Amino acid sequence: MLKVVIGYDKKESAAVWTLANSILKNSSIPIHFVFLHLPSLTKANLMWRERDPKQSTDFTYSRFLTPYLTDYKGKAIFMDADMVAMPGADVAELLDYLPMDCDVAVVKHDYRPKNTTKFGGAKQEAYKCKLWSSLMVFNCYSSKCKQLTPLYVNTATGAELHQFAWTHPSRIAAIPEEWNWIPEHSEGTPKLIHFTEGSPSWKAYRDAPNAEAWWSAYREATAVDVE
Questions:
Q1: Domain parsing of the chain, residue ranges
Q2: Cα(61)–Cα(46) distance, integer angstroms
Q3: Which of 194, 121, 198, 132 is nearest to 161 (CA)?
Q4: Consecutive 10-residue averages of pLDDT for the chain (227 residues)
Q5: Does domain 2-222 have CATH number 3.30.360.10?
Q6: How many CB atoms lie under 10 A from the CB of residue 40?
Q7: How far is Cα 219 from Cα 209, in angstroms, rounded to an integer?
Q8: Strand 83-85 and strand 31-36: pairing?
């Protein structure tokens, strides 16, 4: 069974279920979903850090709890909510890009955002390893991943977490960009589109580049026509 952890934010609930359905539709193996719902994590005393003014979603930091939430066993995938799997894209393939001697696999983007703001008016920050943590495949049992405890995730700086200070660069494997494909940035044919500027579920991005792919997946997920 493949463990897939998806960031949950009530502002993006439509995107969450659209992504989950697009994954289920194409998966060759059973999926065990875990949703990073911040109120639940807070009640369970797993997240207690104060909200960072720079964070744009509820799961900015909780994503690094993925190994802990899977009992530090096997491999697990984390995904941002503003993604959608294309027809025929089996996320189980992502496991093949994580060798046993690496702690995590990511798409190693060299992404420099054109805009200064993104969805919800949040400031668009530029930093080292930008977007790397939006899709991660973890070797949850590795010693480095076992350091991602609730205490560490709640006390480490954003840079330490998102710029992978908790592991060594040689232990970060590369995933092809088709699995974290950015509209108006990435080339080739996508397997997983990442609407990092803003999901089409947001009114301002309803007609964003490649939005129809998301709307098609949304209609399948909800079984209704959207006009």
A1: 2-222
A2: 11
A3: 132
A4: 96 95 96 98 97 89 98 97 97 97 96 59 66 97 98 97 97 98 95 94 93 96 72
A5: no
A6: 12
A7: 18
A8: unpaired
